[in-house]
Write a structure and sequence with these properties.
With 274 residues, the chain is mainly α. The protein has one domain. Helices cover 70% and strands 2% of the residues. A two-stranded antiparallel sheet has the order 1-2. The protein starts with a helix and ends with a helix.
């Protein structure tokens, strides 16, 4: 709702082809608190993060608590998603020996990102919480802490770090170069690329979807003032609906990719290939 109000105020349907605020950051930054508890301000973003957490808890509790022989359709969906994360990501990537140990984290990660990403296409919300860099960065850092801790505890400092910095399987003249690339890639670039990939995809989708749908509504609503130019609104709205379907796929896919890569990084820490 905040995005629509921003564009409605700034949009000049007579002089512009598409509605856009002077600064697109206005579509992502919500600093005005909805309410405060003590000294903590609940902005729209903070509220949606807590809402996503609550929705995940409700989904998992209501979908798994009964364990009936003949589950309902809702329980089938939840059980299928849980089974997918368990079998295809936790066990399929990390392995049956260690996968179940990391299932709670991977399951929580997948469901939280799935709900948070789908906020983008939820009516009256229209804002993916992962389009604020702080959240993808925090989750990527959490994954980094887990796989680095696992790597050192499982393999020791020498095998996990020194062997990566000086890989003996590489020709002597190239060991320093390959070692630096391997260490930087593992300990620096992995969390950065993990966060940026999610953030960039959700920002781009939110921006396109907001500009197209809101422009469509405002141009059609202004038909009395702009005449035939209001036809642009129909075009923008049609494109927006197409993007809406596409963004549903992106929201699900990005939750899957983030969770899958987290599992891959944990697996490579358990069994480093040097």
């Amino acid at each position: 709702m905040g995005d629509e109000m921003i564009l409605a105020v700034d949009c000049d349907v007579q002089g512009e082809v598409i509605c856009a605020p002077p600064n697109v950051n206005e579509l992502f930054e919500f600093t005005t608190p909805l309410f405060s508890i003590g000294g903590f301000d609940f902005t729209r973003t903070v509220f949606l993060i807590f809402a996503a957490m609550a929705i995940v808890l409700v989904l998992l509790y209501t979908g798994l608590r009964r364990g009936q022989l003949v589950p309902s359709k809702f329980e089938i969906v939840i059980e299928s998603l849980v089974g997918f994360v368990r079998d295809d990501i936790a066990k399929g990537v990390i392995g049956t020996a260690h996968g179940m140990r990391y299932l709670p984290y991977l399951l929580s990660l997948f469901f939280f990102l799935l709900v948070g990403n789908l906020f983008e296409i939820t009516p009256f919300v229209n804002f993916p919480i992962s389009s604020r860099m702080a959240l993808p960065a925090f989750l990527a850092l959490l994954t980094w802490v887990i796989f680095v801790f696992v790597g050192f505890s499982k393999n020791g400092f020498k095998h996990y770090f020194i062997d990566a910095l000086w890989p003996k399987s590489v020709p002597l003249a190239l060991r320093w170069l390959v070692g630096i690339i391997d260490v930087v890639s593992t300990f620096v670039l992995r969390p950065i690329t993990l966060a940026v990939r999610l953030f960039a995809n959700m920002v781009a989708g939110h921006l396109m979807l907001t500009l197209l749908l809101v422009s469509g509504v405002l141009f059609v609503a202004g038909v009395g003032d702009i005449g035939f130019k209001a036809g642009l609104g129909i075009v923008w709205f049609a494109f927006g609906l197409a993007i809406w379907v596409f963004e549903f796929v992106v929201a699900v896919l990005q939750a899957y990719i983030f969770t899958l890569l987290s599992a891959v990084y944990i697996q490579t820490s358990l069994e480093p290939a040097h």
